[in-house]
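Hey, I was hoping to borrow your eyes for a little while. No rush at all, and the record is pasted right below:
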Amino acid sequence: MRIEEIARVIQLSIAPVFLITGISGLLGVLSGRLGRTIDRARVLAKEKDIEPFHAELTILSRRAKIIYRAITLGTTSALLICFVIASLFISAFVRFPVSTIVAILFIGAMLMLIAALLLFLREVFLATRILRIGPP
């Protein structure tokens, strides 16, 4: 394999690598939100009289599940992008046309990312719906 061919594959792989970087930022935000949600639920669970907080704990549980699903979808999207990059390199070495495989993997990654972002948006709506500022 010539160095020019390897350089071309590396050039093709740069855009997906930037996409992985963006997804990792999203995963960081989601992880932070999940951590705060779990911390809040733990604080409420330690209360002696948990009954007044039952509704909030239910919503916190729903939020945590939504965030967990979004993290799963975001991670799956990043993995599919990694497979795209690997497929590009494999195709350069084995001279096997993988354009259909790359397209399917990329479309799958985008669908997973879209779903993760929609779940993130749903969780934000749920969090702001129960937002209380000031005394009750």
The helical segments are 3-45, 54-94, 99-129.
